[in-house]
Specification:
The chain is an all-beta fold. Helix content is 0%, strand content 57%. Strand 4 and strand 5 form a beta hairpin.
Length: 114
């Protein structure tokens, strides 16, 4: 059974940095795409950043220049380096792996205080 497990969330102050990690297990294939999505209270889940196995990236406009996505295909792991965090970045961050189907992690809370 494919599992994605996120880690690295927490409570930080505005301007701080956090690094999220998401490790996939239960599969031998490399996801075509891995990425991060987030959902704030009362809002829909939105894309943060994605990265293909070939290294192509896509970012939400709101995080460009502040967040960086990276992958270790050998470990089937994706990372999200988040710098200059803002209170509006507060959300539950979910990892997603895509290979014919979409697989989601359970989410990790990121809270940014002003």
């Amino acid at each position: 059974q494919v599992r994605l497990v996120e880690s690295g969330g927490g409570l930080v102050q505005a301007g701080d940095s956090l690094r999220l990690s998401c490790a996939a297990s239960g599969t031998k294939f490399i996801f075509n795409s891995m990425g991060w999505y987030r959902q704030a209270p009362g809002k829909q889940r939105e894309l943060v950043a994605t990265m293909t196995s070939g290294g192509d990236t896509n970012y939400a406009d709101s995080v460009k220049g502040r967040f960086t996505i990276s992958r270790d295909n050998g470990k089937n792991t994706v990372y999200l380096q988040m710098n200059t965090l803002k209170p509006e970045d507060t959300a539950v961050y979910y990892c997603r792996g895509s290979q014919n189907s979409n697989y989601w992690g359970q989410g990790t809370q990121v809270t940014v205080s002003s």
